[in-house]
């Protein structure tokens, strides 16, 4: 009798992590398509921007919030879809830009909110990995991140591609040509290759840890949130993410020698602002893993250095070793990150 075995645990997640350099390079080559959407936005400059998303896409939306406020000088906020879907609110959204971010484009609450926002006068843009999705149909404009089908439940290539798509879109709205993203695919490959040994050391060190804090400032706060989610959903760790500033406003009191801290620290203003944070958590005995282009310059037990890029692009590279760490820890702890318990690829909420 022949036994047909399925894929090894984590095979899909590992393959999709490895695909990211090619996905990012291909997306950079499609900048002109995204620039067309940006041109339509720029013709009617919005008063402010709103972003709607769930899960990993919510972290990408937070990244976009920083981009919009810093690069475009516009106020931006993350919406609560339930104000419309559950409570029936009808806010005045004339001259407002709504960017809805969803890898699947199938979440009913995001689709409903986008439809309602469009009726209320918003210029609506869908950023999705599924061009034929209900979300893309609901929005006036759409950006296809083009990451290809993702089989692992934990988002990896769709997340990094969403970040780059949002950067290219927002950069193009301000008249940029995406020059800082040139060669990003190659840098992503370097990041994966050069971080492999450091990731394995981190897996060995944190295999039995129960409590993890992730932290970052500025653009990197989104990576802290995404890293926390990946550790929680693949390894079932009690992981919490904080802005470095918020960490010092109370939660630092709970940090001790039993706490692992994954810190995102890069060259730039956000990374500079993390130095006091890391001094504080190191002083409380925390075991710090520093990831980023400035990892060598901060107090840490382990460091994973990432190639330097423009600060606003650093989250695209920094998340790669964080994803690999989540994969490695899940496998080391006897799990299968491709099939986290209780989770599905598409989560439908209202």
Defining traits:
350 residues, alpha/beta, Rossmann fold, five-stranded parallel beta sheet, 12 helices, 10 strands, 15% strand
Share of helical residues? 40-55%
Based on CA atoms alone, the radius of gyration comes out at 20 Å
- Class by SSE composition: alpha/beta
CATH H-level superfamily title of the largest domain: Glucose-6-phosphate isomerase like protein, domain 1
Give a brief description.
With 350 residues, the chain is α/β, with parallel strands linked by helices.
Fold and architecture overview:
By secondary structure, the protein is an alpha/beta fold. It folds into two domains: 11-181, Rossmann fold (3-Layer(aba) Sandwich); 193-332, Rossmann fold, CATH 3.40.50. It contains twelve helices and ten strands. The chain has helices at residues 11-29, 31-42, 56-72, 82-85, 108-119, 134-138, 157-173, 184-206, 221-235, 244-248, 269-283, 314-332; strands spanning 48-53, 76-78, 96-102, 123-128, 141-144, 211-216, 238-243, 260-264, 287-292, 302-305. It has a five-stranded parallel beta sheet, sandwiched between helices. Strands 7-6-8-9-10 form a five-stranded parallel beta sheet, sandwiched between helices. Strand 4 (123-128), helix 6 (134-138) and strand 5 (141-144) form a beta-alpha-beta unit. It starts with 10 loop residues before the first helix and ends in an 18-residue tail after the last helix. Pfam families: SIS.
């Amino acid at each position: 009798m022949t036994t047909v075995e399925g894929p090894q645990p984590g095979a899909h997640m590992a393959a999709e992590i490895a695909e990211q350099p090619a996905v990012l390079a291909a997306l950079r080559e499609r900048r002109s398509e995204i620039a067309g959407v940006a041109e339509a936005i720029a013709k009617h400059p919005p008063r402010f921007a709103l972003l709607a998303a769930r899960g990993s896409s919510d972290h990408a939306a937070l990244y976009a919030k920083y981009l919009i406020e810093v690069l475009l000088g516009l106020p931006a906020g993350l919406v609560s879809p339930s104000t419309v879907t559950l409570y029936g609110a009808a806010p005045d959204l004339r001259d407002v830009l709504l960017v809805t971010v969803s890898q699947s484009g199938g979440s009913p609450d995001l689709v409903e909110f986008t439809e309602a926002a469009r009726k209320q006068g918003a210029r609506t843009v869908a950023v999705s990995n599924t061009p034929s999705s209900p979300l893309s149909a609901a929005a006036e404009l759409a950006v296809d991140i083009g990451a290809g089908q993702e089989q692992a439940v934990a988002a990896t290539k769709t997340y990094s591609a969403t970040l780059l798509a949002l950067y290219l879109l927002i950069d193009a709205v301000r008249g940029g040509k995406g020059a800082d993203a040139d060669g990003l695919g190659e840098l992503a490959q370097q990041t994966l290759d050069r971080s492999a040994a450091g990731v394995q050391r981190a897996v060995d060190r944190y295999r039995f840890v129960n409590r993890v804090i992730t932290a970052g400032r500025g653009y990197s706060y989104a990576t802290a949130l995404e890293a926390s989610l990946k550790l929680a959903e693949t390894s079932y760790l009690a992981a919490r993410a904080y802005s470095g500033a918020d960490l010092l406003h109370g939660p630092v009191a709970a940090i001790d020698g039993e706490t692992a801290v994954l810190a995102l620290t890069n060259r730039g203003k956000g990374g500079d602002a993390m130095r006091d944070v890391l001094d504080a958590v190191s002083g409380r005995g925390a075991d710090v893993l520093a990831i980023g282009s400035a990892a060598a310059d901060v107090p840490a037990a382990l460091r994973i250095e990432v190639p330097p890029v423009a600060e606003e692009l650093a989250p695209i590279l920094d998340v790669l070793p964080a994803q690999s760490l989540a994969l490695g820890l899940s496998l080391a702890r006897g799990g299968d990150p491709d099939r986290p318990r209780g989770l599905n690829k598409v989560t439908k909420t209202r």
